[in-house]
Write a structure and sequence with these properties.
5-stranded parallel sheet
């Protein structure tokens, strides 16, 4: 099972993204058509919608209904294993923030990492893999 970071979902969905081809190949090779192979957290989907609808980031951003449609497709797909923040993930998030002396720009990634780790996810796909390397608990798919 591969936990997906927002950056992976963006690369998978936006053809103009430099890592689009690599993200699509990973999806086809290891996720598509295989039940429960993609771990998804709701906070990654929310961040995805925020990013892909931003006209400052993309020449042709998605509109919100299209972005939400992609999220709904992933959330309800047979390949998806939904992961949620629980009390232990919240505690781990706080521990990692202190332990690694992280600031405000690492809040979302650290919460996502704690959520996936508590859900038993050991692999993570991300174009921003360095953000997750510091925790030392994931095999990283570096896009």
């Amino acid at each position: 099972m591969i936990g997906v970071d927002t950056s992976y979902l963006v690369a998978l969905s936006i053809r103009e993204h430099p890592a689009h081809q690599t993200a699509a190949e990973l999806f086809g090779r290891e996720i598509q058509g295989r039940a429960g192979t993609m771990a998804v957290a709701a906070q990654a989907l929310a961040e995805f919608c925020h990013v892909v609808t931003d006209p400052r980031r993309f020449e042709r951003p998605l509109d919100m209904p299209d972005a939400l449609g992609l999220c709904e497709g992933w959330w309800h797909a047979e390949e998806c294993r939904r992961c949620a923040v629980d009390a232990e993930a919240g505690s781990l998030f706080l521990t990692w923030m202190h332990e690694h002396r992280l600031g405000r720009k690492r809040l979302l990634d650290t919460l996502l990492a704690a959520t996936y780790y508590r859900a038993g996810v050991s692999r993570l796909a991300s174009t921003d893999w360095r953000d997750f390397e510091r925790f030392g608990v994931f095999e990283l798919e570096r896009l």
